[in-house]
Design brief:
Length: 174
Amino acid sequence: MASAQLPEGFKASYEDGVLTVTDGDNEVTKKMEHALIEVEVSDDEVIFTALTSKRNVESITGTFKSHVENMVEGLEEAHVYELSGVYAHFPMTIKQQGDEIHLQNFMGERKDRVIDVMEGVEVEVDGDDLKLTGNDKDAVAQTAARIEQACHKGDRDPRSFQDGVYITKRGKKQ
């Protein structure tokens, strides 16, 4: 059994395998469903109970607890990832168009590399730098990872071809 405490002013609800944590203004939702784990929400606590004593199932209760702690942290202070674009020869342009990020002229390519931004993530583009902000840590981190992986260079030697967009800093909004 594992439990996650909710700070004062926070509320949680669990319905159809989806846990929602809210601080009154913002909310973060996450699917937390497992056949052998029971989820209960009390006034200020979310309790995860394993229905078997197998270690691999009990470890998932710890994972669920960590997810709830990340949801609370994100509502208290938003998660921030900073990325920086690097190029050697072909000047790359990073643009935001709606819910997409376009990498133009990457490695001299004519076709844009397009990355979808996950829901709840705010993007700020400042020249070659990107700043991703959001309450949901998983969404912010997944968007940053998608941007970094969109710069895959195929069979080229990564020691020579270092063009790309890389995560330079991650933490909380100050």
